[in-house]
Amino acid sequence: MLNAIKNYNISILALQEMRWPGDGKFENGVGFVISENILLYVKDFQAINERICYIWITGHIFDLIIINCYAPTEDKEHNIKEDLDRICDITSNYSVKIVLGDFNVKIGKEEVYRPTIGRDSLHDTSNDNGTRLINFCMTNGMVVSSTYFPRKDIHKQTWVAPNQVVKNQIDHNIMIQNRHKGCIKNIRTYRGADADSDHYLVIAKYMTGLSVH
Predict the structure, then answer these.
(1) What are 81-134's pLDDT values in tens digits?
(2) Distance CA 109, CA 150 (A)
(3) Displacement of CA 188 from its chain's centroid (Å)
(4) Cβ 186 vs Cβ 155: under 8 Å
(5) Half-sphere exposure for 106 (CA within 13 Å, toward CB)
(6) What does the record give under GO molecular function (predicted)?
(7) What's the pLDDT tens digit per position in 51-87?
(8) 3-class secondary structure for the chain?
(9) How far from 37 is each of 9, 12, 66, CA to CA, in Å?
(10) Among the listed residues 209, 213, 192, the one whose alpha carbon sits nearest the alpha carbon of residue 201
(11) Measured between alpha carbons, how far is residue 11 from residues 34, 36, 118, 182 in Å?
(12) What is the mean pLDDT of the chain?
């Protein structure tokens, strides 16, 4: 992981499934790894629970709030939307909010959801969790930026099954307010980062008052 941070010049790394201990089990867990040049601008960090946290970074024009999530699969009972709504309510309306993480969703290309989603998702049809995520974005005036960048399929795939055949785009990095969507300059996956995981590294380039990516 540290090699990936150095090799890909990552300023802020969001981690999911860090396997925090709880109730005798090692599961879930989210967090951030922050480079030293960004650490000076960190205003606050809050862990809401084992599946969601956020970091608040002071910017020159707008503050930046990054919300990191690990959402349950469709067969688990946990309403992460309530947590996201809570964070959006308690954080400043004048800040740039980015929501990212492992959402276990498939976002399609349905025309009915434009302009919340773009035309460049890996999948054609959204699953139930994907529809819920799109509805969250629509309610909060956000777009799913990871569906707006034309890429080869290998640079959209974020997860590979144990059989190495099935590949999906289930880590949707990132959602951002529609009025700030121009701050996201690029999003793609990288397969060269070896983190002993069935997920590929997703890198987004973000530019505004602070040059963060």
Answers:
(1) 777 787 788 777 789 999 998 888 899 999 999 999 999 999 999 998 889 889
(2) 13
(3) 12
(4) no
(5) 15
(6) catalytic activity
(7) 889 999 998 888 999 999 887 665 554 566 777 787 7
(8) CHHHHHHCCCCEEEEECCCEEECCEEECCEEEEECHHHHCCEEEEEEEECCEEEEEECCCCCCEEEEEEECCCCCCCCCHHHHHHHHHHHCCCCCEEEEEEECCCCCCCCHHHCCCCCCCCCCCCCCHHHHHHHHHHHHCCEEEHHHCCCCCHHHCCCEECCCCCCEECCCCCCEEEHHHHHHEEEEEEECCCCCCCCECEEEEEEECCCEEC
(9) 12, 10, 17
(10) 192
(11) 6, 8, 26, 19
(12) 84
Residue 170: both structure tokens together: 């289930």
Q: Determine how many CB atoms are found less than 10 A away from the CB of residue 50.
A: 16
In degrees, rounded to 5, the angle at the alpha carbon of residue 149 between the alpha carbons of residues 53 and 146 is 20
Fold of 2-212: Deoxyribonuclease I; Chain A (3.60.10)
**β-strands 64-70, 167-168: how paired?**
unpaired
Going by pLDDT thresholds of 50, 70 and 90, the confidence category of residue 210 is: low
Tell me the per-residue pLDDT of 142-182, one tens digit each, with 9 for 90 and over.
999 999 999 999 999 887 777 877 788 887 668 999 999 99
